[in-house]
Amino acid sequence: MRIGNALLVGVAALAYGVLFAPIAVIVVFGFNEPVGRFNLIWQRFTLENWLHPLRDAALNQALANSLALALAASAIATVLGGLMALALSRHRLRGRSWIEMLLVLPLTSPEVVLATSLLTLFVQTNLPRGFGTLLIAHSLFCLSYAGLTLKARLAEMDGSLEEAAMDLGARPLRAFRLVTLPLIAPGLLAAFLLSFSLSLDDYIISMFTAGETVTLPLYIAGAFQREISPQIHVLATMVLVVSVALLGLSVRGGRSA
Amino acid sequence: MGRRRFLRHALLAGGTAALGPALLAACRSGGGDRSRRLVISNWPLYIDPTSDGVPGTVDRFRKQTGIEVSYSEDQNDSVAFFAKIQPELSAGRPIAQDLFVTPYWLAARLIRLGWADPLPLEEVANAARLIPTLRKPSWDPSGRFTLPWQSGITGIAYNIEATGRPLTSVDDLFDPRLKGKVGFLTEMRDTMGMLMLADGKDITQPTFAAAEPSFARLERAKKDGQIRAFTGNDYQDDLLAGNFAACVAWSGDVAQLALEQPKLRFLVPATGTTLWADVMVMPKGAPHRREAAEWMNFVYDPVHAARIAAAVKYISPVQGVQEVLARTSDTAALARNPLMFPDRAMEARLKVFGPLAPAEEAQFDERFASITEG
Amino acid sequence: MSASRRSLRAEPRTARTRRQDWLPWLLVAPGLTWLVLWFVLPLAQLLPVSLSDTADRFRMTLVFSGRIANYTEVIGQYTPVLARSLVYAGAATALAVLIAYPLAWVIRFRGGRWKAVLLALVVVPFFTPYLVRAIAWTTLLGDDGPLLSALRAVGLPQGTRLLNTAFAVVGGLTYNALPFMVLPITLSLERIPTELLDAARDLQGGPWTVFRRVVLPLSAPGLAAGIVLSLIPAAGDVVNPQFLGGPNNRMIGNVMQSLMLVQRQLPRGAALALVLMALMTATVVVHVRRHGSSDLTLT
């Protein structure tokens, strides 16, 4: 048992090592002073990149596009997904299992298939590709994640609180606003953040649907061909730090709730 | 096309109603006014930048003409770029750019599809300075739709420390001692042009039948693990990181890279190789024709062209650049570089990959993809 | 909401509930419309596209011709790549299970008050952009990179390569599958009461027996969800073969990308997409029928 335990802990430690190996590279190369175009070989330490994180104008534009897209797509997904989750978990609905399957499938379909089907649809209907088509695509796959996440949250929750509120004379909408909404607020936030990070990171579907709009992953793929600036590593580190801070807050918030 | 009409109606009814005006606004790119503006798209690091207070060509042009230039270096994959502009141009809508720089073969496709406007060459006095070898080229027989930006040579770049010996021919790329350390380009014409020439084929009038032995050779090398990767511009990372010992590469890149890695060498095979050009094209309906003419005239002035040539180290298409470079001591060496100014012996090795009929181009693309993606 | 209250109580229908029968439909309508418009409709129109001829591949114009050969051609030509994709994805999923299960076990049973932190640490690396991570791996695995240099120092033969090999691709896929494996397994282990394990041990069960007879069956839903969530993205991945693989390690996603964006053969791309979709959907439908969808959400 001792040996087994040590082995398990060893595997776990190794796993964490592997998980953080590329992260270490990203953080470290933010402090590199590359010779030439590609920040891929360690040269020497500098703070220059951190003092000028926004020097790469095209990168900033791509990041701004990505943030706007992620924000809009997550908002659509959280609202539509939230409504669907309410209906699926609180109401009797004919064809419920079919609707649920429909909600699951975009999440479990290979991304290239979604990308291909959307691209052919846009081509066939002559819909100009750009931010609009990106928003359609991103809100679609985010909808699945948001809807299923919220449905799971609602399923864990007890419907009796709402009933109690209404037995005490609250109208349905008021009961929803005063009871249900505060209860599912952490779930909504989680769904929104999950959607946000998925959208921010999507490469394959964006590649097919972006038109001339450049998102962050598309920019990075292009940069691999021409110039990998250390600002990429700096911004990646910043995204990481902000995300960890948000995660820390939500973990703490989740505990106190 | 009943189905298509139905789809469009469904989309208009459902999609736009649900999304509202925001989507429509997002779909339409902002239409520009017709003032003194110019939108140019070029490949990265393909012009002299403003640095250390010395203004680059774009800034000098801005200052001299007062034209508000948007110059973006957002070209990095011609296939992806074509995919981006295709829906707009095939629907007869103008795209964001007034002028973009694209490979000669893609320019030929755009001309054939009727998606390029004739250049306002009558307003470009300096266009007369175009070097003779690039006049009325096979990709633009009338010479009215394209003006070369830079031209260059596809060759073999290698790290002499890694190969242990100077390379002398295309066959060296298939040397088993370099197994797994060799790269080829995803640009079909560059890779295949060099291989076909090594097989003694004429690439100025390429046929699929003539190319097949070279395809077969490439496919065998891939299956054997001789070829480590097919790359775009990223072969530069692999050369510097030591992953490639040798690879098919472009002349100017290697001249620039050699400054960082002195062990790099560049071979122009004696069996011949491709001479290519990246050309300026005006997409159909581009509004700022006069400003574009002024830009072309500016960059075809030998003094400005020499600045660009000294920075990018490709073949300048402008006559008189060599003389301008030779005048100054710190650029005099460039004027003697045969990769920038090919001499007779070099010129004899250089061939332009000829135009392909649409059906044959599809065959070439499919066969090539079956090797790179299969 | 009153409709929920009524339905939960399953009271006999009154005039009021009947009037509100439309409420759930009103709630699902926007999302359902969205799913139909941008998921069902695009997939449905792949069928006619996949049975068409390309009239002009640069203008992307198609002519419906009922050309079934698109299917036989892509299946004939790409079966090896498809098989390779499934093998890589399968190998990566198996590796991910082997790494993730012990990790989940340690988090659940040895994590103590650090449990939440340990779990969060599994997710944190994935807050960096996917492609930047892939590029970082190329730095780590390069021929002169830190990993091979270190291994050579302890006797690895010269000329051993990692980057641009099947090993690197499967490694990359495994890496990206880890959080999708660790989270559902940890959550399912979480649901096993400690008392149950104590009871099993008290009944003289050895650790292996307890694991096999109690823990494994109880964590099966999480394991199954992890497998689905790892297998499908891995099988359709584009990035890892592109950045970490060589020309003999391309996967079906790269082929789709080439067909759609480079060769511009929409009908063949559509045919291949439908084949892929059929394969994957079968897996998912079986999973959801057996385990439901809730484990797939990682919550």
Note down, in words, how this protein is organized.
The complex is a heterotrimer of chains A (257), B (374) and C (299). With 257 residues, chain A is mainly alpha-helical. Chain A has eleven helices and no strands. The longest helix of chain A is centred in the N-terminal third of the chain and has 34 residues, at 57-90. Mean pLDDT of chain B is 89; it is low at 1-34. Chain B is built from 16 helices and eleven strands. Chain B has 374 residues and is α/β, with parallel strands linked by helices. Chain B is globular. Helices cover 42% and strands 16% of the residues of chain B. Chain B has helices at residues 2-19, 21-27, 57-65, 78-90, 104-113, 160-163, 188-198, 208-223, 235-241, 251-257, 289-299, 302-312, 321-327, 332-335, 344-349, 358-372, and strands at 37-41, 68-72, 99-103, 116-117, 147-159, 182-185, 227-231, 246-250, 264-267, 273-283, 350-351. In chain B, helix 8 packs parallel to helix 16 (358-372) and helix 12 (302-312) crosses helix 13 (321-327). In chain B, strands 1, 2, 3, 4, 5, 6, 7, 8, 9, 10 and 11 form an eleven-stranded mixed β-sheet that branches. By secondary structure, chain C is mainly alpha-helical. Chain C is built from 13 helices and two strands, in the order αααββαααααααααα. In chain C, strands 1-2 form a two-stranded antiparallel ribbon. In chain C, strand 1 (52-56) and strand 2 form a beta hairpin. In chain C, helix 4 (69-110) crosses helix 8, helix 8 crosses helix 10 and helix 10 (207-235) runs antiparallel to helix 13 (266-291). The interface between A and C is large, with 106 and 94 residues.
